[in-house]
Design a protein that fits this description.
Elements lengths: L1 H45 L8 H23 L14 H32 L13 H31 L30 H15 L7
């Protein structure tokens, strides 16, 4: 049994690493390629009067993939924009019930888009993208893969919401690895402290400026 649990944890870690590569490292590389292509095209067009043929089209393809794959990464972290002014005042069980309804609606929309994209991939004759000779199918493929990944995370959130409705202990999932270092309960090794709130920082600056003024200039 211990060996099976260890193997299971290793498999989950490997799956998580693969997901992070697809959803974070790959979009970062595509975005870098997009920036390089556009900069090269601008320099070639306006400096050497010799534009990079197909640079704009290829950058467009990279940007589409960044958009949909990046959306899946945001869904995994639970960082999509939501309006929670009202639901934050609910009890945990009621929040879970509301989240069940929301995730069911989200799953329905995602399934519709996946079905549409799958049907387009199978039955549509795509034309080539000008300048690079690649079928526009690659754009629809980005839509399909991105929404397929979001389907997995929406199903996960639905399961967590059902569990919260049954147990009465629930909070909306908002994991974000980039902001773990801002947690005051677990400062980093370098001793980094989270920045003050904007209003707090403004008042502190005003107080410091007041102290630095000559006594005759103080209000």
């Amino acid at each position: 049994m211990p060996s099976q649990s260890t193997a299971g944890r290793k498999a989950l870690r490997a799956l998580g690493a693969a997901a992070r590569f697809i959803e974070e490292d790959l979009p970062a590389a595509l975005l870098a390629i997009c920036v390089v292509l556009l900069c090269t095209d601008v320099v070639g067009r306006y400096v050497f009067n010799h534009p990079f043929v197909g640079a704009g089209s290829l950058a467009m393809v990279c940007f589409v993939w960044v958009t949909y794959i990046g959306s899946a990464a945001i869904a995994r972290r639970g960082r999509h924009i939501v309006i929670d002014v009202l639901t934050d005042r609910f009890s945990p069980r009621l929040q879970a019930i509301v989240q069940i309804l929301v995730q069911m609606l989200v799953l329905g929309m995602i399934c519709y888009v996946i079905g549409y994209a799958w049907n387009a991939l199978l039955n549509t004759r795509f034309v080539e993208i000008p300048g690079i000779g690649i079928s526009r199918r690659v754009i629809t493929l980005a839509l399909f893969i991105g929404f397929l990944l979001m389907l997995v995370y929406a199903a996960r959130d639905l399961v967590l919401a059902f569990r919260g409705a049954l147990t009465g202990s629930y909070s909306v999932r908002t994991d974000d690895d980039e902001f773990e270092s801002l947690n005051t309960a677990s400062p980093t090794r370098a001793g980094y402290e989270p920045p003050a709130e904007v209003t707090e920082a403004v008042f502190i600056k005003e107080a410091l400026d007041e102290d630095d003024r000559p006594k005759g200039d103080r209000r």
